[in-house]
From TrEMBL, chains A, B:
Tree of life domain: Bacteria
Protein name as catalogued: Rrf2 family transcriptional regulator
GO MF term set: DNA-binding transcription factor activity
Transmembrane segments: none
GO CC terms, sorted: cytosol
PROSITE patterns the UniProt entry points to: HTH_RRF2_2
InterPro entries attached to this UniProt entry: Tscrpt_reg_Rrf2, WH-like_DNA-bd_sf, WH_DNA-bd_sf
Length: 135, 135
DNA sequence: ATATTACAGACTCGTAAAGTCTTTTATTAT
DNA sequence: ATAATAAAAGACTTTACGAGTCTGTAATAT
């Protein structure tokens, strides 16, 4: 089963965000460094990073001494934000069979999904770092 | 994005279980009837049903007047049980990059997933029917 | 014996993730 | 200016798996 699984890209994105947050972002970090840590090709990772840039949570700088850095307000970026940026915002479950106006099964599936999202909305990269440093 | 989505099979399974529960199961229901309702081929649906049989939540009877019916104790079958039967029990997220013994990202993802499962464990087909009849 | 119905397995098809390669664009250093 | 650096864009390949078909076999009632 490959469905009902986060893509690898999401994993890369989460780790990249954590890495950027940890490297106290006075200077941007090049994709080579980020890619090396996660053992993934720079070109592939750059495509993922571009998505994060377009969502406004990462800033990019071309040219020498360029690279990626977190944008202002990054402390409030949640896991859900990052996941949405990569996986999209669509629901895990759609009842295609259209039988009646409201499918009760759909409804149950949706509320369960919202429980997970609620948790992911509360978890932030910043919170993760706080947890790392206090222990 | 096709990942991070329930398979269609899960949708079929859930609706089939509901249908079986509604047809007060004195006699088993043939796969043709079940398939017709959901506009899916009988042969394909039978493969899904076989999985449910193997998990012990559905009984099957070959031959004339055969078909499928719910097993005893079906009232306690949860959404999660059905989902597990089709999608498998593996986690939505695995941090493949092995950096240190415990990945904090993995931990967050897992607990969020458990929130969803907790809800799906409480929701039953029987509960759904109760909701339908009381309104 | 025959009709009916579930089970099993091999098979096709389409699509999307995962990743590569090449080119272009933007920025800095010299 | 120009060369070097680094991100962005896009076409392309590969691979895997969901989704579904087809064929045949096993079991059971009439």
């Amino acid at each position: 089963m490959k469905t009902l699984k986060y893509s690898k890209a999401t994993n890369y994105a989460l780790h990249t965000m954590l890495h950027l947050a940890l490297s106290n972002s006075t200077k941007p970090v090049g994709v080579q460094i980020l890619a090396e840590q996660q053992k993934v090709s720079p070109t592939y990772l750059s495509k993922i990073l571009t998505k994060l840039v377009k969502e406004g949570m990462v800033a990019s700088a071309s040219g020498a001494n360029g690279g990626y850095s977190l944008t202002k307000g990054w402390e409030s970026i949640s896991f859900l934000d990052i996941i949405y940026a990569i996986e999209g915002k669509s629901s895990l479950f759609d009842c295609d069979l259209n039988h009646g106006p409201e499918c009760l099964i759909q409804k149950v599936m949706l509320t369960s999904e919202e429980k997970m999202e609620e948790e992911l909305r509360q978890q932030t990269i910043a919170g993760l770092i706080a947890e790392m440093t206090t222990t």
